[in-house]
Specification:
Chain A has 787 residues and is of the alpha+beta class. Chain A has 19 helices and 28 strands. The radius of gyration of chain B is 16 Å and the shape is globular. Classes of the chains: A alpha+beta (787), B alpha+beta (172).
C-alpha cells in the first residue's frame, strides 16, 4: 500500500489544528442557557464522624439555588465498583459503600460533604463557607501495614477490617514456589515502594448536567475517557436512568492518563441536581481540588524474591505487595494490583514458578486506581530492579542475565495465566544496544569522571498485556463489564466516510490514525474519512480508551465494519458493471472487473447506494453503513528494551538524565509519528515518577504535596532528547491489523531504567547502594551515597 | 510540628500570669488577632486574620486555658476554622519560673493545619508556626515589660493602647 496517508504514514495530527489554535471544544467550553454552578464543600480532615451539616445560615445567602447534603442521596445508589476480586480463600473482596455525598463519616481529605448550587461559582463558594459542619475527628490510617494491624482504626465501620482482599496468584503454585526459593542456589531479595502519583492531566475534570423536563431526557457533558461506560454505570447503578433517556458526551478531553476512566461523584451529582433544580448544573474542578479528588496512581509496597540456579537461570519468583486502595473503591481499582499486575510478573522471562500475593488496603487517602500503565509499571519496576540487583550479586552482566532468561519461543504460556503470542526480546535488546551506543559508554563515563560526575547506565526490559481485553476472560477474572469495542462505518452518498467509534481520543490522535486504516483499506484519501467519538447519542456502545486498546480493539472493529462495507460495495459494483461479484476487485478507490478494463469509481458506487435508480434492490438494501463489534481473542503483548544514562553529582546527589533510549516492539505501526509521540509522553511520565513526582500524606492524612509547589512534575529541562525506535516488529497474531498498542509502554518501561542507571553510577563509584526508592530526589540519592 | 523556646520577662510570675489570662493582652499579642472576647473560665472567642504562604484567611475559633496551676503553668489551646482555607489548631504548654531577672517563661508549642492550608502551605507551616509563636511571646513580653529600651521615645509621643493596658496590668 502507498504510504501517502495510509497505514504506515506519519500523517500530521489533524486534531492539532484546533488544539493549537484554541478552537478545541472542551467540557468547560460548554455553557447552557440558565446554568447554575456547583461548589463542593469538602472534608479538610482525613477521618471523622459527621455529626451534623447545618446549612441554615447558607440557604438564604445571595445567589443560592439549593444546597445538597448526604441526606439528599439516601436511597440513591452509591458509586459502583466495576471489578470484583476474589481473594485467595475464595471469598469476594470487601466492598464498601461509596455515597455521592458523605453520609455518617468523612474518610479522606476531599470527601464531599455538601454541594452548593448557586447562580455563580463565587456565590456558591461563599455560601459553602457559611455551612456549619460538625465533625468529630477520628484517628486516620495512612500507612498500609499499620492499617491492617489488629486494632487499627477502621475506614469503614461495617467492614471487618481495612483489608479489601488478600489475593494469591497462582494460589496452587504457592507451595512449589516456597520450596523452590528455600532450596535455591541463590535468592535475591528487594524491598521497594512504588510511589503514589497524581495523574495531573492538563485539563482538570468538568461536568455539566442538563435535564429537559418536557422530554425527561438527561444529558451529562463530562471529561471522560469512556462516555458509554459512564452512562452505563451512572444510569444503571447510581441514578436509575435508562440508557435511552441518558446521553453522555465527552467532547475534547485534555489528557486522561487513566484518571478520567472512572465514574466520579461529581458526574452523578450534576446529572441528579439538574433534574432537582430544573436547571443545568456545572462543576469545574480547580487544580487544588483535582489533587484531592482525582483518583491517584500506584502506591505499592513490595517485597520481591528471585531465585536463581548456579548458572543464573531464574527458578522461582515470589512477591508480596501491599496496594493502597484509598478510602473507597474507585471504578476499576481492585483490578490494578491483581489482574493487571500479577499476570505480568513473568515479564520477558521463562521463570517457571511464580507466586504473587497482594493485600489491598483501605486508608484515609484519596482512592487509587489506574494510572498510565496501571499495574504493569508496578510489575515491571520490581521485576527489573530485582534482576539488576541479582546480576550484581552473582557477578553477571545485567544484559547477559536477562538474555539468558528471555522467552524465545512463541506462543509462550506463562505460569501467571497469560499466553504471549509473539515477541523477540533479543531483537529489541540488540536494537537498544545499537541506538543507544552502549559501545561508547565507557568513554562517556570517563569524560564525566573528568568533570567530577558519576555516570551510570541502566537497562531494563518490559512486557505489557494491553489491547484490553477478551470479554469472556476478564469476566472470569471479575470484571463486571465486557471489553469489546465497536465501530460504525457510515459511507456518505458522495463517498466520504464517517466512522463512529466507541473508543475515545484524549491525546492519542485517533482522528488522524483511524482514517489512515479505513482509507488504506478502500484506497481513498484519508481526508475523506472523519472520526466521530465521545457522544453516546451518535456512537455505538463501546468501552472507551485505556489500556492501550483503541487501535488493537477499536481499530479492529473498524476493520471488520469496513470489510462489510467493501463486501456490499462490491455487490453494487458488480451490478453496475454487469459482472460477477467474485470478479470485482477494489484498488486505489476504484472497482474493476478482473481481466477487463471495466472500472467504476468508489464515489459512483456509494452514490448508487443512496440513489438506487440502477441498483440490485432485490438482493441488497440501499445505503452503505455497517457496524461491527470486535472482541479480541487475547491481550496484545508489546515489549521492548529501554536504557537510561545519568550523571550524579557526588556533592549534591542531583541526578541529571543525559540520554534515554527505547527500542519497542509494537507489532505493525499505523502512524509512526503518533507512536513516537506516545512513547515520548510515556517516558516523560516515567521519568517524572522515577525522579520527581511523589504524592505525600502526613500521619494525619493531610495531603502535603497538593500543589505544583510541592508536587514536582517533569518539565522539558528535566528531560533529554529521547531516542525512540520501533523497527522491531512482531505483529500480533490475533487482530486483523497486527497491532499491539503503544500508549502506556513509555510509562511502564522507563522508571526501572532510570533507577538502575543511578544505582549503576553509584556502584561504579564504589558506593554500596543497592536500591533507592523513587523519586530519586537529590536528598535521597545523597543520603544513599553517604549512608 | 513541635517547637519550644524560652524567654525571660522582667516581671514577677504573678504579673505574667495575669497577663496570660487577660483577653485584651491576648488580643494584642496573638498576631493578626482582630477580636478576642471571653474569660479564662469560659474560654475565649477569637478572630485572627493570617496569611500562610499563598493562603490568606480569617480564622474564627476558640481559645481555651487548661491545666491551670497559678502562677506556675498552664496550657493554651486554640482551634480556628478558616473556611475554604482549612483549619489550624495548636496548643502551648507554658511554664513560669521565678528567676533573679523576673520570670522565665518556657513554652512548648504544637501546631497542626488541615485542608488547603496543609495542601498549599505544608512546606512553610513549620516556619510559620515558629514565627507565630515567637511573635506572640515577643508581643507578650513587650506588653508586660513595656517597649524595650531605646524604643521608649516614640511611644511617649503617642500614648498608645499598649501603655494603657500595661498600666492597668501593673496596677499603677
Amino acid at each position: 500500500m502507498p504510504k501517502d496517508g495510509g497505514i504506515g504514514a506519519s500523517t500530521k495530527r489533524r486534531e492539532d489544528v484546533r488544539f493549537l489554535t484554541g478552537k478545541g471544544k472542551y467540557t468547560d467550553d460548554i455553557n447552557i442557557h440558565g446554568q447554575a454552578y456547583v461548589y463542593f464543600l469538602r472534608s479538610d480532615v482525613a477521618h471523622g464522624t459527621l455529626n451534623s451539616v447545618d446549612t441554615s445560615a447558607a440557604e438564604g445567602m445571595p445567589g443560592v439555588v439549593r444546597i445538597f447534603t448526604g441526606k439528599d442521596f439516601e436511597g440513591i445508589g452509591g458509586l459502583p465498583c466495576g471489578w470484583q476480586v476474589t481473594d485467595r480463600h475464595g471469598e469476594p473482596m470487601q466492598e464498601p459503600a461509596h455515597p455521592v455525598l458523605a453520609q455518617g463519616k468523612v474518610r479522606h481529605v476531599g470527601d464531599p460533604i455538601a454541594a452548593v448550587v448557586a447562580e455563580s461559582l463565587e456565590e456558591a463558594r461563599d455560601a459553602a463557607e457559611a455551612i456549619d459542619v460538625d465533625i468529630t475527628d477520628l484517628p486516620a490510617v495512612i500507612d498500609m501495614k499499620a492499617a491492617v494491624q489488629d486494632g487499627a482504626p477502621k475506614v469503614h465501620d461495617d467492614l471487618t477490617s481495612n483489608l479489601c482482599y488478600d489475593w494469591g496468584f497462582v494460589e496452587d503454585n504457592r507451595q512449589a514456589v516456597d520450596d523452590a526459593i528455600k532450596s535455591a542456589h541463590h535468592v535475591t531479595t528487594l524491598e521497594l515502594k512504588n510511589n503514589r502519583l497524581v495523574a495531573n492531566p492538563m485539563e482538570p475534570r468538568v461536568a455539566v448536567g442538563d435535564f429537559n423536563d418536557a422530554t425527561g431526557d438527561h444529558t451529562l457533558y463530562t471529561t471522560s475517557q469512556n462516555p458509554h461506560v459512564i452512562r452505563l454505570l451512572m444510569g444503571a447503578f447510581v441514578l436509575g436512568i435508562p440508557e435511552h433517556k441518558l446521553r453522555v458526551v465527552a467532547p475534547d478531553v485534555g489528557g486522561g492518563f487513566g484518571t478520567k476512566i472512572f465514574h466520579y461523584a461529581e458526574e452523578a451529582f450534576c446529572t441528579f441536581a439538574a433534574k432537582e433544580v430544573k436547571r443545568p448544573v456545572k462543576w469545574t474542578c480547580s487544580r487544588s481540588e483535582a489533587f484531592i479528588t482525582d483518583a491517584h496512581g500506584r502506591d505499592h509496597v513490595t517485597k520481591i524474591e528471585l531465585a536463581l540456579d548456579a548458572e543464573g537461570n531464574f527458578t522461582a519468583l515470589r512477591t508480596e505487595t501491599y496496594a493502597n486502595m484509598g478510602a473507597y473503591l474507585s471504578t476499576f481499582a481492585p483490578s490494578v494490583p491483581t489482574w493487571l499486575h500479577g499476570t505480568l510478573m513473568a515479564g520477558n522471562y521463562k521463570t517457571p514458578l511464580i507466586y504473587v500475593n497482594v493485600k489491598a488496603v483501605f486508608t484515609n487517602t484519596v482512592p487509587v486506581d489506574a494510572y498510565r500503565g496501571a499495574g504493569r509499571p508496578e510489575a515491571t519496576f520490581q521485576l527489573e530492579r530485582v534482576i539488576d540487583k541479582a546480576a550484581r550479586e552473582i557477578g553477571m552482566d545485567p544484559i547477559e542475565l536477562r538474555r539468558k532468561n528471555f522467552i524465545t519461543e512463541f506462543p509462550y504460556a506463562t505460569p501467571v495465566a497469560v499466553e504471549y503470542d509473539t515477541g523477540n526480546y533479543n531483537a529489541t535488546m540488540d536494537k537498544l544496544i545499537e541506538v543507544a551506543d552502549f559501545a561508547g559508554f565507557e568513554a562517556r563515563a570517563e569524560e564525566s569522571k573528568a568533570r567530577g560526575k558519576l555516570r551510570g547506565l541502566g537497562v531494563n526490559c518490559y512486557i505489557e498485556a494491553c489491547g484490553i481485553a477478551p470479554s469472556n476472560l476478564v469476566g472470569q477474572l471479575g470484571a463486571r463489564a465486557g471489553l469489546y469495542e465497536s465501530a460504525t462505518v457510515r459511507v456518505n452518498a458522495t463517498g466520504s466516510i464517517s466512522v463512529m467509534t466507541g473508543s475515545h481520543s484524549h491525546g492519542q490522535g485517533h482522528e488522524t490514525a483511524f482514517p489512515q486504516v479505513v482509507a488504506d483499506m478502500i484506497g481513498i484519501d484519508a481526508s475523506q474519512v472523519e472520526i466521530v467519538h465521545g457522544d453516546t447519542a451518535n456512537t455505538p456502545m463501546g468501552m472507551g480508551t485505556y489500556g492501550s486498546r483503541s487501535l488493537a480493539v477499536g481499530g479492529s472493529a473498524m476493520v471488520r465494519a469496513t470489510e462489510k462495507i467493501i463486501a456490499k460495495a462490491k455487490k453494487i459494483a458488480a451490478h453496475l458493471m454487469e459482472a460477477s461479484e467474485g470478479d470485482i476487485e477494489l484498488k486505489d478507490g476504484a472497482f474493476t472487473v478482473a481481466g477487463t478494463d471495466k472500472s467504476v469509481a468508489w464515489g459512483d458506487v456509494t452514490l448508487a447506494a443512496y440513489v438506487p435508480h440502477n441498483y440490485p434492490l432485490e438482493d441488497i438494501e440501499p445505503g452503505l453503513e455497517e457496524t461491527a463489534f470486535y472482541d479480541p481473542a487475547n491481550f496484545t503483548y508489546p515489549s521492548g528494551a529501554y536504557s537510561c544514562e545519568v550523571e550524579v553529582d557526588p556533592d549534591t546527589g542531583k541526578v541529571e538524565v543525559l540520554a534515554f533510549a527505547a527500542a519497542d516492539d509494537f507489532g505493525n505501526v499505523v502512524n509512526p509519528m503518533i507512536v513516537e509521540g506516545q512513547v515520548h509522553g510515556g517516558i516523560a511520565q516515567g521519568i517524572g515518577q522515577a525522579l520527581l513526582e511523589n504524592c505525600a500524606y502526613d500521619d494525619d492524612g493531610q495531603l502535603l504535596s497538593g500543589s505544583y509547589m510541592d508536587y514536582a512534575m517533569p518539565r522539558a529541562a528535566d528531560l533529554p532528547n529521547f531516542i525512540v525506535d520501533h523497527s522491531c516488529q512482531t505483529p500480533c497474531t490475533h487482530n486483523p491489523l497486527g497491532v499491539k498498542g503503544c500508549g502506556e509502554a513509555g510509562a511502564i518501561g522507563s522508571p526501572p531504567a532510570l533507577v538502575n542507571a543511578v544505582c549503576d553510577a553509584l556502584q561504579r563509584a564504589g558506593k554500596d547502594v543497592k536500591h533507592i526508592d523513587m523519586p530519586l530526589s537529590p536528598a535521597r540519592v545523597w543520603a544513599a551515597m553517604n549512608g | 510540628m513541635e517547637l519550644s523556646d524560652s524567654r525571660v520577662i522582667k516581671a514577677d510570675p504573678q504579673t505574667v500570669w495575669k497577663g496570660l489570662l487577660d483577653p485584651d493582652v491576648l488580643k494584642a499579642c496573638v498576631p493578626g488577632c482582630t477580636e478576642m472576647s471571653g474569660s479564662p473560665e469560659e474560654g475565649f472567642e477569637a478572630t485572627v486574620v493570617q496569611k500562610v504562604g499563598p493562603v490568606k484567611a480569617t480564622f474564627k475559633g476558640a481559645v481555651t486555658l487548661s491545666e491551670m496551676n497559678e502562677p506556675h503553668s498552664l496550657t493554651i489551646s486554640g482551634e480556628g476554622k478558616g473556611g475554604a482555607a482549612g483549619f489550624a489548631k495548636g496548643g502551648a504548654d507554658v511554664e513560669l519560673k521565678e528567676v533573679p531577672e523576673g520570670t522565665e517563661l518556657t513554652y512548648k508549642v504544637e501546631a497542626k493545619v488541615g485542608g488547603k492550608l496543609a495542601q498549599l502551605g505544608s512546606r512553610i507551616i513549620d516556619g510559620f508556626a515558629k514565627k507565630m509563636a515567637d511573635q506572640f511571646f515577643q508581643n507578650f513580653q513587650t506588653a508586660i515589660e513595656g517597649p524595650p529600651e531605646g524604643e521608649e521615645d516614640p511611644a511617649e509621643d503617642a500614648p498608645t493602647e499598649k501603655k494603657g493596658w500595661l498600666k492597668r496590668l501593673t496596677g499603677s
